[in-house]
Amino acid sequence: MARLGRLGWGRTAFKATLAFCTIMALAFLSPLGSASPRGFSIEDPPVLVSPVQTARQNAIAAAFQHAWNGYSKYCFGHDTLHPVSNTCEDDFGGYGATAIDSLPTAIMFGNEEVAVQILNFIAALDFKVVKGGSRIQVFEVTIRHFAAMISAWDLLHGPFSHMVTNPDLRHALYVQMTTLGDALSCAFDTPSGVPRDWVDPALCQTDKATQNTIAGAGTMILEFARLSDITGNQTYAHLAQTAEEYLLKPQPATGEPYPGLLGSFISVETGQILGSKGSWGAFADSFYEYLIKAYLYNSDLYQSYLERWLIAADSTIRSIGSHPYGHPEWTLLSSWDGGNLQNSMESLSWFAGGNFILGGMVTSNQTLVDYGLSIADAAGAIYESTKTGLGGEFVTWSTTCEASENNPCDPNEAIRLTDGRFRLRPEVLETWYYAYRATKDPKYQDWSWAAFESINRYCRTDSGFSSLTDVNADEGGSKGDVQESFVFAEVMKYVYLTHLEDAPYHVQDSRGSTKNTWVYNTEAHPLRVAGPPR
Ligand SMILES: *[C@@H]1O[C@H](CO)[C@@H](O)[C@H](O)[C@H]1NC(C)=O
Ligand SMILES: *[C@@H]1O[C@H](CO)[C@@H](O)[C@H](O)[C@H]1NC(C)=O
């Protein structure tokens, strides 16, 4: 880790080397006329983009187009295509989840044709009409559809202002994201102000559930604050902040078994935390993720969120993270139940590596960056160890080993895959994106690319990309016929961004000269920050 750490940070020696490289690069580049049009300065050294990176970007954009063509052909307007049977499903209310979730990716890949197709679709949507029932799931629609629309608005009014210049389409996007924001706002009409997870958008009514997850309550702040800042209507931000207050000052004490780390459920009646069982995975994950990201979004307003994130991160290092025996350089995150820990980690939790790296870069804390890298490296080791080169859904591990005749304590067997399904989840690719930004170590690009090639090889169908039943079986076992919209929103985007050196919407990198002017929501939709960039 120390090796990577030294490479990764704007220390004096590193800066001096960069300055020298800048001069050399200028000398080489200028005659070719391929220098950045922005002009160079010592603070912002150029990065040489290799033909390999360009070829990889093109291959990813082609994979996106392939999956888009399949979805368009068989299921356009439906939520999800099953890419083996070519059947359609409306599992998110029938707003065309895959189409809307793909919009920022299409824009960032420069795919104007697809972007226009999606914007026309959005313009014609009626959010009051829900397919297969009368309610929508607030968490999923917020992070996928709602965030995608806001992100597209930010991208089209920023770095991609040259795309989709039709004012009617742009206006329709604005109207529709506000309409959807109003419908989602209905979720907060509860005794405590903690949202419920299901809303009937036609009647502006919630269901009657007594509890929500802390992810459900704590993953609204970025999207709602952004909509407030774009529209000037502060109601959205206030709703999300009110809910978040219960998570920033959790009650009762048993709901916070480790400082900053909570039980995963919250009462919508009282705002109390229910139980003391939690993890960085399902039901909780993006609550922790958004603490640091809310601060990035508006560092004046959300200072207290940063403080809580630092407490949670510190507790995780002290109490939750653990190292499989023989590998002190890898970190895996246990789940907790009160004070009891279980050495079990699900694929969703792997985002935490990137989250630690981001928080470490933002606060200039190398300990946190290195910790995140040790999670990124554990993921790399797991992916490299399977037959398909892909990770599964669950791992368990041992931290110690009593050697015996049957148990030679092989460090290669310290981590065990207990659920080998590959659900095309993006969290590991996300963590490698942050790891690459922080270190510029090409190994993270190579891991990301290797995973992408495995996806192309084992998951590809005639119409898209399918989940697999077993990453450790020949050919990945069989195809599970599931392709969630995050394949378009996250998988493609994170691999692409990991192979793109310079872009205004990147998170900061190791050079430390740029601040974060964009922040990625939990579905990889970039939002432009509103407060002083950090
Ligand atoms: C602001 O947003 C809230 C929440 O959706 C909505 O009820 C209210 O009408 C909006 N106010 C204005 C002036 O648009
Ligand atoms: C960096 O983070 C670690 C882990 O939370 C903490 O122990 C340390 O004090 C932090 N360093 C600084 C300089 O804040």
UniProtKB/TrEMBL annotation:
<dbReference type="GO" id="GO:0016020">
    <property type="term" value="C:membrane"/>
</dbReference>
<feature type="active site">
    <location>
        <position position="285"/>
    </location>
</feature>
<keyword id="KW-0479">Metal-binding</keyword>
<keyword id="KW-0325">Glycoprotein</keyword>
<comment type="similarity">
    <text>Belongs to the glycosyl hydrolase 47 family.</text>
</comment>
<feature type="active site" description="Proton donor">
    <location>
        <position position="393"/>
    </location>
</feature>
<protein>
    <recommendedName>
        <fullName>alpha-1,2-Mannosidase</fullName>
        <ecNumber>3.2.1.-</ecNumber>
    </recommendedName>
</protein>
<dbReference type="InterPro" id="IPR001382">
    <property type="entry name" value="Glyco_hydro_47"/>
</dbReference>
<keyword id="KW-0378">Hydrolase</keyword>
<keyword id="KW-0106">Calcium</keyword>
<dbReference type="Pfam" id="PF01532">
    <property type="entry name" value="Glyco_hydro_47"/>
</dbReference>
<keyword id="KW-0326">Glycosidase</keyword>
<feature type="active site" description="Proton donor">
    <location>
        <position position="140"/>
    </location>
</feature>
<dbReference type="GO" id="GO:0036503">
    <property type="term" value="P:ERAD pathway"/>
</dbReference>
<feature type="active site">
    <location>
        <position position="427"/>
    </location>
</feature>
<dbReference type="GO" id="GO:0005783">
    <property type="term" value="C:endoplasmic reticulum"/>
</dbReference>
<keyword id="KW-1015">Disulfide bond</keyword>
<feature type="binding site">
    <location>
        <position position="522"/>
    </location>
    <ligand>
        <name>Ca(2+)</name>
    </ligand>
</feature>
<dbReference type="GO" id="GO:0005509">
    <property type="term" value="F:calcium ion binding"/>
</dbReference>
<comment type="pathway">
    <text>Protein modification; protein glycosylation.</text>
</comment>
<dbReference type="GO" id="GO:0004571">
    <property type="term" value="F:mannosyl-oligosaccharide 1,2-alpha-mannosidase activity"/>
</dbReference>
<dbReference type="InterPro" id="IPR036026">
    <property type="entry name" value="Seven-hairpin_glycosidases"/>
</dbReference>
<dbReference type="GO" id="GO:0005975">
    <property type="term" value="P:carbohydrate metabolic process"/>
</dbReference>
<dbReference type="InterPro" id="IPR012341">
    <property type="entry name" value="6hp_glycosidase-like_sf"/>
</dbReference>
<feature type="signal peptide">
    <location>
        <begin position="1"/>
        <end position="35"/>
    </location>
</feature>
<dbReference type="InterPro" id="IPR050749">
    <property type="entry name" value="Glycosyl_Hydrolase_47"/>
</dbReference>
<keyword id="KW-0732">Signal</keyword>
